[in-house]
Each structure stands twice: as C-alpha cells, then as structure tokens.
Amino acid sequence: MKRSTWILLAVVALLASFIALWERKQPSTEEIAERRNRLVDFKPDQVTQLSRSGQGAVSLVKEKGGGWRVSQPVDDAADRYGVEGFLDRISKATVLRWVESTASEAQLGLSPPRAVWTLKGPTMPVVLDVGAKAPLNEGLYVRIGGRTALVAPDLESLLLEPVSSFRSKDLLTVGTADIQSLKVVRGGAETLALSRNPTGGWTVTAPFSDRGDSNQIENLLDDISLCPVDQYVSDKPADLSSYGLDPPSTDILLTAKGQSIEAKLGKAVPGGAPEKRLVYAWVSNRPSVMAVSLNSLKSLDQDPEKLRSMSLISHDFYDVQEIGVSGLYALALKRDEKLGWVFTQPKVQPKGAQASILADGLSSLRGERAVPLTEPGALGLSPPALTITFQGKGFSDRVDLGRDSSGTWYAHPAKRSVALVLPERAWGKIVASFTLVKGAPKAGPK
Question: CATH number of the domain that 402 lies in?
C-alpha cells in the first residue's frame, strides 16, 4: 500500500474519532426536550443568596467554603444539604404546560402570590411567584419571567416548606473534628472532662485522669454534635428558666474552632411522645430554644470508665517500627522493607515462630479493665516480670508486665496511674509465641 494511502487512512481515522467525541458531548434528544421544558435554567452552585417573601419569609446567604447561613427571620446555621437539595430540585423542575396569558391571576392565586422566591448569583436574579393549586390536584401555578406555568403538585410542599427545614438539623454547629475539649456538669458537679492532645488522641481529666479511648470519645462527641433537633420551640427567648435551662439539668461546655460553646439540657417537653424523651435544649451560639431526644444522648449517661483507653501504647501500632522484649523473655522484632516483621533477636529465625503472628498479637492486645496502681508489688510489677518497648519515629512506649499470686497478668503502660488486666486467652497465645523463640525459657514465670 502506498504511503499516501496510509496517510489518508490516518486522517480519516482521526476525523472519525473527532466526530465521535463531538457527538458524545452533544445532548441527547431526551436531554434537549427536558431542557426545553425546564421551569428555569440555572446552575445551583452559582446561587449565592436565596430568599422567600410572603408565606414563611426566610433569607439565606452562602458563606465562604460553600456553607449556608440563615439571616432572616433569625441568624442561625443553615442545613447545607437541605439548601443544596432545594436548589437542585428547583433547577430540575419542569413545566407541565404554560398557561394562557388571558387566565385570571386572582383565580391562579398569583394576585398576590402566596410566596415569592428570589435567587441571586453572578448571572441572576431569578424570581419565582408561587400561586394556588390547580383543581383536582392537577398541579401548582407558578409565575416566572412574566409567564405562568403549571408544575408538578409536589413542588408546593417544596416551595412552601417551613423555615425550620432550612435550619441546621444538628444540635451543635461544629463537628467532632473541631472540638478541642468537653466538660459535663450535672447538679453543680463536674461529672466528665476531656481534652484533645496536641499530638493526637484524648485525655480524660474527670472523674479520673488517664489516657482516653479516642474511638469511644469521638462516638460520644458525635452523639452530642449530631444530636438531631426535633423542633424549634422559641426564637430569642427572654427567659430560659421556664424551660428548665437556667439552671440546666445538664450543662455541656465545649471549646471548638477557638470559641467557647455552652449547650444546656432542660426539663421534659410536655405533651410529647414519652418514648421520644424530648427535653428542651439551648446552645450559646444559636438563637432558639430547641427540643431534642435524650435517646440520641444516651452516651452521656455511660460509665466514664468506658472512655478510658485499654490500649497498651499511646501511639498507633502502624507507626511502630521496632518491638523489644526484656526480662523473663528476651527477643526483638523490627519491620522489614515490605512492612512485615522479622526477628532481630535471636538473629536466626526461630523454628516454628513467626514474627508477624507475634507482632499482630501484640498489636491487638488490649486490657479488659483498669485497676489502680496502688500496690505494684501485689500485681507482680515491682519489679516487672517483663518489659516491652514499642519504638517508632520520635517515640518509645514502654509497658511493664507482671503476674499476681492468682496468676492474673497485668500491664502497666508508662506514665499511667493504672494497670490493665490482660485477657487470659489472648495473653496466653503471646506467651506461647515467646516460648518458641530460641533462647526464651520454656518454663513459665514463678
């Protein structure tokens, strides 16, 4: 085949690819028809202001970062996803049919309209008047750009939904990741206090002082911050005492995003369903008395001991690079270039012993409960029978282990005021792994 023919074939193939790509980007017949029938053409992410006058007057403003805030009738955090969902539905609303201009605006409920929506943005505004429902629930009359349209009847509930639908559905306006400290006061006494460590993790400071369990603590914080608001009871209340909020039955004090926030829980809401256990609530950076369910705040009533860390080390085990064992047993492990584990002591791989299994066992080992470290000798910790050191980049976590006269094993992580009771079965498997390592004694501790 001639060279010119090859060139011609290449040009044809390139042209065919271009045409296919161009056609792929073109809207389909169905998409063209849908756009033609849309009530209004705008992109939801371009809207920066949103307001409704008339029935249920409300105003919202888009904030930096993409969030929304209610500015009228109260100044409050908005439900971002609720607002975005509203705009998305309006942008996709289609016209069932256009109404002839000779129709009476009064009969269509448009003189005056029940409500007027105004959407503002760089290429807007859009003004939408909400009229009456058509006979036999055929649809809803709306007016836009001087024309009247009949739209689906379910748009009525959307266009006239209550102001509360646009407000934040969560009790707090900050997320768990933003919270730096928490205090809970009941009956004038501090029943719980927590603080986030600068290097990560949490410390419980009341009713005891110890390392906290991050997962349990963040579950507690999620329950508080994401506690759903059942209803907005009163905007800008003059007197909180009538709701049992001054003084409150439970006072929650937080620091988040550099600000102090107080959340109060008050007396039961009268007339509510008993199973919902509704109580009045108030938050210092929000304008209203709200009603929330105590069912969503059950974690506030849990034993604080459940918030104590049962982990032997203060760092994530994935950051541990070396493990050393001394005392009754002597061995050492380190991560290899494949992030697995190998023995460095003894230098010859012990027959039948697998470093990865031993490391996995140590990584998953947690205490069953904590006991005060008042008599280390009675727990076999003075001196300890074993010391395990977990080393990583920039840290070294030491754990002493001992056994009392009944045979129960205890672990004492350095700088903690408690010892952790080790689960018999899990610790027994680790001891069995120790005995397989060359140079470790076969007999158990006395």
Answer: 2.60.40
